[in-house]
Amino acid sequence: MPKRYRKLPVEIWAIHYDGENQSEVMEFMKDAKPHDGILLEDFPDAKDDDLYVETLEGVFHISKGDYIIKGVQDEFYPCKPDIFWKTYETDERSLRLILMVHA
Predict the structure, then answer these.
(1) Of 46 and 88, the one with more pLDDT
(2) From the DSSP assignment, how many helices (H) and strands (E) are in the chain?
(3) 45, containing H or E segment
(4) 13-23: per-residue pLDDT in tens?
(5) Which of 22, 30, 37, 45 is 20 to 30 Å apart from 69, CA to CA?
(6) What is the dihedral of CA 36, 70, 82, 46, to 10 degrees?
């Protein structure tokens, strides 16, 4: 019999890929281990602003506008913006800290 389940509240880190912030994405993912989200720099037929990430589930394309998430087991994976905003919200504590630092 099917049962209803609810996702546990969990905090994640993520970065929005805007097509021009490759260096920020690379810095964010610098501690990735093989198959946990290694950025592939020389992928066949890749355009200038294309990024690809290798995970345990295979190689995923990161499009401009996607979010790259660092999961609960320190794995990295892309997420489309519509799914991201249905699943996550901004952590107001982090937002306040960012605003205080840049004030």
Answers:
(1) 88
(2) 3, 6
(3) none
(4) 999 999 888 88
(5) 45
(6) -50
Secondary structure (3-state) at 72:
coil
Q: How far apart, in whole angstroms, are the C-alpha atoms of residue 6 and residue 22?
A: 34
Give me the pLDDT at residue 47, please: 63
Secondary structure class of 41 (helix, strand, coil): coil
CA distance 66 to 83: 10
Q: What is the pLDDT of residue 98?
A: 47
Q: Which residues, 6 or more positions from 1, have their beta carbon under 8 angstroms from its beta carbon?
A: none
Contact 77, 83 (CB under 8 A): no
Amino acid in position 100:
M
Q: Which pair of tokens denotes residue 78?
A: 């892309």
The continuous run of DSSP H or E covering 100 comes out as helix 92-101
Name every residue whose Cβ is closer than 8 Å to that of residue 78 and which is 6 or more positions away in sequence: 17, 53, 60, 61, 62, 63, 66, 67, 68, 69
For the chain, the average pLDDT equals 79
